[in-house]
Every structure is written in C-alpha cells, then in structure tokens.
C-alpha cells in the first residue's frame, strides 16, 4: 500500500496535542487497560511503530480508489468451531481462525475477539469497526453458538479487508500469533502508538481537503445509509424465511416418503371379506414403498437449496448489514464523542471567560488573574485540538462513506446467487418429480388386474367415475 495519509506527526505536535486533550478527552475503549509494559520484541515494535498507510490516488488524499474485487481479494478468513473443552467449572468454546493471506491457522476464544476489537477502536476511533456478536449466555444452545461463529467470521473478514486495518500490526498478530498470551500481545502493540489522529500526517490539515458543505453531505449520507440498512434488513428477513421454508419443505418431503414406505411395509393381514382384492393391495403397497426413494431424493434437493441460500444469500446479506451497522455506529461515535467533547470544551471556555471578566471587575489578586489566564490559554489549546479532531473525524467519515459505496455492488452478487439457487433448485427437483410421475401408474389397478393410468382431473378437481 502506498500513500501519505497515515504518516506520523512530528513529536512536538503529538506532545502538544496530547497535553491539550488531557482535561477534556475521555478514555477511549480499553485505554484504561493500556499502561506502560515491557518492551515488545523488536520485530513487533518496528511494525507497531510503522505508520499505517492507505492507498490514495494522485490529487486529493480524501478520495479512495478501491474496487470491491480488490477489497475481497485482500484476505479470506475462515472461523470454525473446535469441540468444546471442559474447564474446572464451565465449558468454553474455541475457534480455529485460518487466514489465506498469512497462510496461518490459530486458535482463538471469544474474549480474544473482544480484546482485538477494543484495540481497533483504540487505534482507529474514527473508522468503521464492526460490532461483535453477544457473549455466550447461560443455556446457550448449538444454534446460538453456530450463529455466533458466523457473526465472528463476518467480523474478522470485514476487518481483514478494510484498507487501514488490513495493514495494521494488530490484525497480523490476531491472525498469525500462535502463543497463548495473544491478548497481552495485542495490548502491547497498541501501547507504542497513539490513535490514528496522532499518527496521521494529514490530521491537522484534514479541513483543507473537505468540501465546504461537508456537514450537509454527512447528514445526507447518514440518512441514505439508514434507509439502505432498513431495506436490506427486510430483504435479509425474507431471505431467511425463504431458506427456512426450503429446509422445512425438505423435512416434510422426507417424512412424507417415510410414511409411504411405512404403508408399503405394513404386514397386517387382510380380512377374509377383502381377500378378493389382495392382489390390488399388495401391488399398491409395493408401489408406495418404492416411491419413498424419490421423496427422499426430493428432500435432499430441497435441503441443499435451503443450505445454499443460507450461505450464499442470507450470510452475504448479513455481512452487508454488519458493514452498514458499523457505519451507523461510527456516526454515533462522531456525534457523541468528538463533537460532544468539542461542545463541552467551548462551554467550559465560555465559563472561564466570564470568570476572567468578573475577576477583572472585582480587582482580584494578580496571581488569581494569572491563573485564570493560564487556564484560558490551556482551554483554547484544548478547543483547537478538539476542532482538529472534529475535522479529522469528518475526513475519516467521508472515506468510510466511500467504502460503503464500494461494497454496494455486493448486492448484485447476492441477487445473482439467489436467482441461480432458485433456478438450479427448481430444475433439479423438477427432474425428480418427472422421474417419479411414470411410477404413479402402478398405483391404479383396473378390472382383472389390468393397470390403468390415473385420470387427469378436470378444472373442478373431481375425477369422473
């Protein structure tokens, strides 16, 4: 990856910004856990200290030039369940996480994913960090565990394909470090550097690259993404129902065939008054028993279609929804985080100015006035830093909005997979139904055991006698 967007600030600027924020900044996620520790191994330190960089086209660094194919090709990560292991008191679930890019396979627990996400939020508070599925609750069943596995897989793939996250040492550690203390390694890698604002050369000049109507664009983009999310949420729900119906249909067809087989296998003797029809009943039972094979095949085809649509349609819709949700979460962090802190800093500055004016009017001691002046200067620096962070947050939001639009063509892939699944499924089941149809003639025996084909029902559905 090349470009200038993530080069580090000069040390003096970093120190000044850190001091200016000391009074107003709240601790970012997991920052309270990040205390000075032992020095990293040299290779890790070099990678952690290296600036993260994003590919930029010539010209405005705000604009991205990625395609969906490029993002998807960055990595494909598999997350598979490992059989539960019993601890002293509770069983825990482990996952095998395999990366094509790093050619690695490591074992991770849910809490490892939690620390990984916390470090991403600490280093990239102005980027789309996907949410994690809920922690295991008491009485969690296999369905819950499988749903969480799928969600963790979506999470790590979205992270591994993000332009910034994919080049960060935190991701490499999570996907390739095979030691037992991966959580400590992740935390240590984040101690050596500040967040993206502190390490981006363009952070203090982000305003220069933003359009004049950035606030209006932000509001429009947020409303658009909200509408897209709501619509695709409904599509996902319908796709789930369609796939579920296919699986339910498979179960019904299988039971239907088993019942036919049960009838054909019935050994109850015929009563004497039905002895004249013994050959008819015997032929019917034999034919019904044979039909169970076709119904089992129909059930298999329906189940395959349902599973395929779960994987190729529902799961990809969930991936897209996870991405959209991470954008919505980012917008909330912008409003409740940097923007809110900026407003608080301005309010505090206003109070200090009033105190200064009051002190001057009351002719207070010079030392008291000097202290107020010093505090006002510090607050002015804090406000300036907040303004810089606010513009940098909008800068990042603009780029993350572009990434959302890069992912939009994924919807055509999803629809194509859905259409192809329906075509293939109906085609395969139609063939089995057509193969079954000639066998139905064995179910109808006429006088003197002569076989007669079934009649085609008229429009009213009743067969004439």
Automatic annotation (TrEMBL):
Keywords: Endosome, Lipid-binding, Membrane, Protein transport, Transport. The keyword Transport applies. Residues 1-33 are annotated as: Disordered. Residues 20-29 have a biased composition (Acidic residues). GO terms for molecular function: identical protein binding; phosphatidylinositol binding. Residues 73-181 form the PX domain. It comes from the Eukaryota. Belongs to the sorting nexin family. This is Sorting nexin-8.
